[in-house]
Amino acid sequence: MSTTVWEVLFYACNLYKILLLARILLTWLPNIDWYNQPFQGLRAITDPVMAPFSRLIPPMGGIDFSPILLFFVLSLVQSFLQQQCPFTCRPLF
Question: Which residue ranges of the chain lie beneath pLDDT 70?
Answer without folding.
Answer: 1-3, 86-93
